[in-house]
Amino acid sequence: MTGRSDAVGAGSSASTAGQSPRRQELIAWSFAAPFLILFLVFMAGPILVAFVTSFTDFRVTDIRNPLAINFAGLDNYLDVLADPRFQKAAANTSVFVLVGVPLTIVLGLAAAVGLNQGVVKARALFRVGFYLPVVTSIVAIAVVWRLLLGTEVGLINGTLSIFGIDGPGWLSDQRYALWSVIAMAAWRNLGFLMVIFLAGLQTIPRDLYEAAKVDGAGAWQRFRSITLPLLRPTLLFAAVITGIGYVQFFEEVYVMTQGGPLNSTLSLALYAYSQFSFGNYGYTAAIAFVLFIAIAAVTYFQFRVLRTD
Amino acid sequence: MRTQHKVGATLLAIGMAVTLAACGRGDDNGGNGTAASQAPEIDTEGASGDITVWAMGAEGESLSVLADAFMDEFPDISVEVTPVPWDAAHDRIVNAIAGGEVPDVTMVGTTWMGEFAALGGLEPTPANIDGGQFFEGAWNTTIVQGTSYAVPWYVETRLLYYRTDLGVAEAPASWDDLKAAVASMQESGAEWGISLQPGGTGAWQTYIPFFWQAGGEILGEDGTFTLDGEPCVDALTFYDSFFEEGLTPPAAEDVPVEGRFANGEIGSFISGPWMINVVEDAGTDPAAYAVAHQPTEAAGTSFVGGANMAVLADADNKEAGWAFIEYLSRPDVQVTWYETVSALPSVQAAWDEEALSGDERLSTFGEQLEDAKAPPSIPTWEEVAAEIDAVIERVTVGDTTPEDGCAAMQEAAAGIGTGQ
Amino acid sequence: MSTLAPARNLPPAVPASESGGQALGGGSHWWIYVLLAIGLILLVGPFIWMVLGSFKTTGELRQVPPTWWPQNPTLANYEDLFSRLNFLGYFFNSTVVAAAVTAGNVIFCSMMGYALAKLSFRGKKVLFGLVLGTLMVPGMVTFMPLFVLVANIGLVNTHAGLILPFLAGGFGVFLMRQFIGGIPDELLDAARVDGAGEHYIFWRIVMPLCGPAIATLTILTFLGSWNSFLWPLVVATSDTMYTLPVAIALFATGQQETNVALLMAGSVVVIMPVLLVFILLQRHFTQGIAMTGIK
Question: Looking at this predicted complex, what is its ipTM?
């Protein structure tokens, strides 16, 4: 994650040559100070406090006497890892990430390629339209999706029944619920990725395609040999953001299924939230930091695998 | 920031789902709760100064109407009402107590009492206010560890709503009657005779009354959980039988029940007074349905919820706060409140007034309120309730038997403890 | 979807043309239009349903089977919103807060990003790692400590209390650092040789070159801040400090039931400014992402 600063470092020493190192430092701090003060007080501070509480038995009943709480060592962390609900949530979250990330990327890429290649007019319309679910309130989206996926009254099952097919409980059957949620998440987020891929596609020089066409390469071939390789950095970028976001998936399950049926859609973030609402603050902090480690690991892993240099 | 956006938006969504909300917490420690200890009497006659009051929802907005009338009568007191959305009101109050930035008076969901009192955030109710004037179940919701910490403001309870045009002539009186009625509605054309919650958040509010009707108590004499045993097995088996016999939709239907009740697809359901407006809005013909008292076995107990009014322990002006709460407990003021927002009065005397005694549906609610309980006011109730919900889901889906389910409930509850 | 990945440094001189770069290299095909149009309908459909729903009554919205076009279109929900809510007041609060948070982030994060990218000082790497790390911690655990802090500083129920905690976001630093890192050092050195001070260089040379990144940061920060609900709810002890999402939740969600129609209308109203910002800035946004080192 932090491996990028070497290139930057080389530049900076040249840039401030001619001034005393002390002076350079002071100037640098003058730029950093406003941000740092606000950041340390309002962002890092509370996180540190939360981290400390993860080693205590802090509960809601302690809030008026915060100093009376007891040190609990690693108990919270051990309890978290041993909790079957946590394990289920971890399994669900893994499926969500492993399936959801590629799915959203494929859809976003398809939309971007289609928009880039095939469409000249109304491009802005498509762009805004595809991006709309990203900015629409999750509440409104949930209302609509529940209408679609309702077992007996849903639009999807209604349409299927016209063909004589008895649709399953998309949200109410524990075998299907997680897949339905993945589908909804991909639907919602593909617009965001589409915009990113569109940007990436812009940077591929046109002449490469022209040359390939002249050489007789077909559309799919051009895609495979030119587009995909040159898009690799974008793909890394997209995979990482989506990965980080999906490890923390919460909204979709909160409004659609509340983690059910039978915990089949329970996500790590939702699990943390329910503990938070019970007032088990120390325990919740432990879950949060376990989640943090998971996110950091996923990011690092994606980096190692998809690095382009 | 993104995370905050996420949390924010989802909390907005709390109102969309059938949530555990703030309803129905009380203390069923032994049941004879009116004998609760209270703080010594305080002088509310001479109270003066400013107070801030937090009230939830759009009703909170309407509270200013009552506040104005109060200020007319008590010109030395100035009341500022701040409406607060239901969704995150609980979190807001918790944070306020933690940060020391509390109002003088706040509305409190009955299910939050145990938690707030246990952390020392609420003032004990002074002896000026007599607990006997309220419905017993409602008064019990204010009692935590033997002391009363709030005053019931409005109440709600759950009745059976059923279609009268589907072959059911009279209200079912016992469990067997209920089963028979539901079955006959299904034969007369309803797709589902009843809609019971198969699990998920808040399912306990539908199941626990059956547990009480079978003679069960959530906490035993010694204050520990008694969730298993024969009453549980009886109640859970009865509950599950509707699912086994195909009398209720097997899965949580995300489409609101009122639409399907309106067009006769669903024959009956169990819910509270707010559903009257909701089902009629969705198109149900008022003449085609009725409400009925819960069926009676060992008892005919229903669930009582609603909201209480409390003074915060860190409040600046407690006397004036209690003066306001005293005012809100007057029968005539309770009736005015009912007329403003249709919330049922917690004071029994208010029900003798014409506005309420004349309406048939309302009197059924009034009758039920005399036999209604709430779960114990313990700080860990939310967590225990979530475990109960999970067991109900497993039983109705067929994952486990009622006997094993009862044992699981008890084990989980005992593991969590009462937090006291 | 909360962070951008660290990416390569990139010379900002790459032209990001809109009409160039055809991925498949062909001309327009009608079938692509069709596919995209279908996709568009699927994606925009719920939004349209939401808008249509805002003209219905809650009763109609609860009907089974659901209706598409309003049976008796009504403006009552919007009337309710604008009259019952102190709409202008809440709109003002939302605007002030979102604008301040956005402006603050743009300025402070750029400055920090510049320091990290182009200046040298001790602890730079550690600081950057720290900033990145905070992006990966789920926000809910910081809530109560943050509130207690704000309460102790005396900022409860003030605009400052709504704004200050979010003025310094790690996301902005990340974005700006990557982008600024791509600006050629030669440009800056030339200015230094001419005797320009760092602050002059930053404001007069670097920032103007950062247009796309600033646009990106603006859109995303504004979106997050505008929609924020929980923090304003907790920090505002009286309703004069409520923001729009809080106010809408107040009126639309009850203890037991939800006024769905009002919620739909509220959602439509809340989404408009965000959409507007997106539409106005979206061209830059595309370029902005391209610049942060996709290639």
Answer: 0.82
